[in-house]
Model the fold of this input.
Amino acid sequence: MPTKPLQNASGIIQATIVKKCDRAFHRPESNKGCAGGTCQHTCEPAQAEQCAHKWTVRYSVNSRQREASFRTLTEAQVFQAELSAKKVTQGALFVDPRAGAARFGDVRRQYAARLDVSADSLKGYESNYRGSGAARLLDDLPVATVARMDAEVEELINVACLARSRDYRTNVLRMIRGTLDLAVRRRIIPGHAITGLELKTRRLTAEQWAAANAPWVFVTDAQARILADGITVTRTDKNGRSHRRTLKGLGVAAWLMRCCGARIGEALGAATSDFTEREDGSRVWELRWQAADDGTSLVALKHRPAGEGRDIPVPDYIWNMVQALPPGPVCPGPRTLYLRYATAAARLQVLAREMGLDEGWHAHNLRHQFASEEAASGANIADLAETLGHQSPEVTFRRYVRSMPGRVDRMAARMNTRWTAGPAPAQAA
Done:
């Protein structure tokens, strides 16, 4: 009853159609099931072709035997033909036509669960992926179909999302390409067409460039104190009655962002025990963890393995504030061990609006301001990059270091000093 094996040119795939019920395979002398009467071999060879039992395609892929069952012989023969034809004529895009039918969204979630990144970074990747429209476009499609959608993915990344930042588009492409790479490793597909896709450079208009490069809104020391200590404001309702309301700040955490360049999650996760004085008298913040967004635990720092971090010098002003606190987190939450990220960001934004800083200001500006002041004062960029937790000094230059307010006055003063007496007389060569 077995039909002739089908083999491709490379000899990798062989497919044979059989009826397991055929008594030609009945071996009571060597098979326990056959000897005990529990085997599948229930039909005589002459009856097997017309019986109601399913047809089975037995095939081998890279030395691994697999089977697929079909109701009719025709369906089995079509599968047998497709199994080899798709391997040969479509650039080996299928390891198994049925495996390639797995939903892209299911494999993507498996890929995301295996990413070696922090929970916050993963949340950012997922947010970018969904916000770009990739989830609507790809998640319900078979993996084998997405593997050939290089034109559609390029349209999404380099046309529909071109107005987005390069980091945003990189995250989306990483999720798509990483999912397909995982499918290849699991032999769901042997390859995909997204490998050579590159990000197109965004060409900005003058207005777009101005918006993207707007000057940072810096805060004064007095405003930083309000972000830390909070403020009490008076409101008048529609009936003319006055009400006093206290807007809370972040306490020491705000100063850690302003004076030490910490990210908001790092500042929220700080504890008094992290601040130590060494034998040489130097005082440092041994930063190893940051607070999780929900405030219930500590997680690894951005771009760092668990437990790995950096030491940040602590000025006396911060040291004295920390020493005055009770043991434990410097910024505890009302119902969680650490203040939740959303709560902290909301507090800072409310205070910023109260001070008139809401136009273009955000919490990360405190870190920007620290980096800019340090660079302007002559700090070594490599030292500054280590303090900020950057992977290289180039990141510090590209993203954080900008000129400080008063640049024109400082430059004018230096230029006037140089050229007060007019140009120097020409010197003979």
About this structure: The radius of gyration is 33 Å. The longest helix spans residues 166-185. The chain has three domains: 6-88, 104-206, 221-400.
